[in-house]
Design a protein that fits this description.
By secondary structure, this protein is α+β, with helices and mostly antiparallel strands. The protein is 28% helix and 37% strand.
C-alpha cells in the first residue's frame, strides 16, 4: 500500500539517506512550511520530493528521488502527480522542475507532460556541472 504525506522531523534519518544536499536549517524549514513529501510503501519510506517557490510564486521541484530498491514500480510518477495535484489545490497554475542534461530524468519528466523551457550553465570552477535544464508544466 502506498501513502504520500508531508515530511516530518522524524523522517530526518531516511531523508538524509537519499538527499545529501539539503542543509539542516532548510530541512527544518521544509517541515514547517510543508514543502517536502515522503512516499511510503507498506509503511516503509521509499521516496521523497522537495520543492520551493521560484520567484516566490511558482512551485519548483528541487528533488524527486526514489530509493533504488523501490524503483520501476511507478512510485516516482505517483509522487510527482501527488505534488502537482497539491500545487493545483493551492491555486498554482504551473510548476517547474529541473535536471542536468546528462541525466535520464528529463525523459521521465517529458513523459509526465513537462516541456523544456530553458537552461542554466554554471562555469564557476567550484560549481562546474553539466547544464541544468528547466522544464515546465501547466496544471
Amino acid at each position: 500500500m502506498i501513502e504520500i504525506r508531508y515530511m516530518k522531523t522524524s523522517d530526518r534519518q531516511f531523508w538524509y539517506k537519499l538527499d545529501k544536499h539539503l542543509p539542516t536549517a532548510e530541512y527544518n524549514n521544509k517541515v514547517q512550511t510543508k514543502r517536502g513529501y515522503i512516499l511510503l510503501s507498506d509503511d516503509e519510506p521509499a521516496g521523497l520530493l522537495r520543492y520551493n517557490l521560484f520567484w516566490d510564486n511558482t512551485p519548483f521541484c528541487t528533488m524527486l528521488y526514489i530509493d533504488e530498491q523501490y524503483r520501476s514500480r511507478g512510485y516516482g510518477k505517483q509522487l510527482l502527480e501527488y505534488w502537482e495535484n497539491d500545487m493545483k489545490l493551492q491555486g498554482y497554475g504551473m510548476v517547474l522542475i529541473s535536471t542536468q542534461v546528462n541525466e535520464t530524468a528529463q525523459h521521465f519528466y517529458r513523459r509526465a507532460g513537462y516541456r523544456d523551457c530553458g537552461g542554466l550553465i554554471l562555469d564557476i570552477s567550484a560549481c562546474t556541472q553539466p547544464m541544468e535544464m528547466f522544464l515546465v508544466k501547466e496544471i
